[in-house]
Design goal:
This protein is of the alpha/beta class. The protein is 56% helix and 13% strand. The protein has a five-stranded parallel beta sheet with strand order 2-3-1-4-5, sandwiched between helices.
């Protein structure tokens, strides 16, 4: 795999890979491992916003009810992370940065301006039935901490609808830009990561082929 890692690293440079998917699709799990593999830095909009909600009762109310964060708060809280000095010169792996229709254009510009252009977008495809199963399994093993938005089934239903109505148009924007990589995210964590890595490698190899 080392040679394949080198191929992806050379192509990526200091650019960004953004990962999307339904709740429990494995965005952060895949993103952290991919960042480690590529020598990149990992940024999760969910983690950033959940840290900020401790000082913002309105944000806390939105997120614990399953709603996406207000887009103005996303812009003021999350986007500045892309231009942080400690990330300069590194590639980035992003987890769902810019989930509400329209935010993707802000992300594209901020990433470009900070030297981390969005070069690929990964979509982790899982069924809603699999999402529900993973939530139930997670509640048993407690592998996601004490997240309020994981506890109730109806909140997960809200999160799924938010993804369908607000995030799918974002993903369609990236599809039209021909940088979307759909990935089968069923299976074990190792199987899903292998699917992601191989899908990304194939995308890079296609991009590197001479234009006819």
């Amino acid at each position: 795999m080392d040679n394949n890692v080198a191929i992806i690293r050379q192509w990526l440079g200091t650019g960004s890979i953004n990962i999307f998917g339904l709740p429990f699709s494995g965005k952060d799990t895949v993103g952290i491992r991919l960042a480690e593999t590529l020598g990149a830095r990992f940024l999760s909009s969910g983690l950033i916003l959940r840290a900020a909600e401790k000082q913002d009762t309105d944000l806390l109310k939105e997120m614990t009810s399953g709603m996406l964060a207000d887009t103005n708060k996303f812009r003021s809280i999350v986007l500045p992370y892309l231009s942080r000095e400690d990330l300069r010169g590194f590639p980035l792996v992003l987890s769902s940065v810019g989930r509400w229709e329209g935010e993707e254009y802000d992300v594209i510009k901020a990433a470009e301006d900070s030297g981390h252009p969005i070069k690929a977008v990964i979509l982790l495809n899982v069924s809603e039935a699999e999402v529900q199963k993973r939530r139930e399994d997670s509640l048993i093993v407690q592998d996601r901490g004490q997240r309020e938005d994981d506890r109730e089934r109806h909140i997960l239903d809200v999160r799924i609808q938010e993804f369908i109505t607000k995030t799918m148009p974002v993903i369609e924007t990236y599809r039209k830009r021909e940088i979307l990589i759909p990935i089968n995210a069923h299976g074990t964590k190792d199987e899903v990561f292998a699917n992601v890595f191989n899908g990304l490698l194939q995308f890079v190899q296609r991009q590197s082929q001479p234009q006819q």
